[in-house]
Amino acid sequence: xxxxxxxxxxxxxxxxxxxxxxxxxxxxxxxxxxxxxxxxxxxxxxxxxxxxxxxxxxxxxxxxxxxxxxxxxxxxxxxxxxxxxxxxxxxxxxxxxxxxxxxxxxxxxxxxxxxxxxxxxxxxxxxxxxxxxxxxxxxxxxxxxxxxxxxxxxxxxxxxxxxxxxxxxxxxxxxxxxxxxxxxxxxxxxxxxxxxxxxxxxxxxxxxxxxxxxxxxxxxxxxxxxxxxxxxxxxxxxxxxxxxxxxxxxxxxxxxxxxxxxxxxxxxxxxxxxxxxxxxxxxxxxxxxxxxx
Length: 293
Description:
The protein is built from nine helices and 13 strands. It has helices spanning 46-54, 76-81, 99-103, 118-132, 147-160, 177-192, 204-210, 233-241, 256-259, and strands spanning 6-17, 20-31, 35-39, 61-66, 69-71, 84-87, 165-169, 196-200, 213-218, 221-227, 249-253, 263-267, 277-281. It is α/β, with parallel strands linked by helices. Strands 6-7-8-3-9-10 form a six-stranded mixed beta sheet, with helices on both faces. A four-stranded antiparallel beta sheet has the order 2-1-4-5, covered by helices on one side. The chain has a three-stranded antiparallel beta sheet with strand order 11-12-13, with helices on one face.
């Protein structure tokens, strides 16, 4: 693929705070309809890079292209107008409002006399959830819903604003196993619609389950970008931590009775019995109807 396939390009981005360089000449791109994993340890620069794309911060150097054209993203509003949506790890919803009211907060449909048209908001919210192929009541008060529904509302909020690129930051952190699997199925459907997803996660199983490519940042610099088929788990771990992994990471299922069905990546060089370099892997897919409160 060439750069014409990119919906977002961040070229040679640099950023510093109070004289401390946080990002140095970092480039990152996202293609239409792909899941691009973004990985790195604490302080690698992931959050800063994404906040620049969101318009929260402005880069000291470099440029952003949307659809191949230079874009000035100086605010969250600029990012939304450019089709960039964020699904927050710590939800940004107002618990006392309904699902529909949260989706259209600060962008409420107006009726006669300039009054907020709640019926129109509910109708449009139903349409968005229908496109997502999930069942959520737009009239429900958010405070009465479970975490998985909060996340669905966040995603619907971004899609209702015509987001073509979704940034997901550790989206399974607060989800149960069956809810995580339902999220993965939703991500697959969004990909089929041509929605691009930047997926930030430290969970190896999720990266290999979802991502087409991965970019690793370390110490504020770009380390690598590659298809997941071209990198091994140990290469990813070595890239993140900056240390050589002894032996080869191999996949195996742990004994269910002893380890509660968890799976792990284990270094072939390990001599400590059942001690694993663990990246939890969930067993057994759930149906997409598994979104529960």
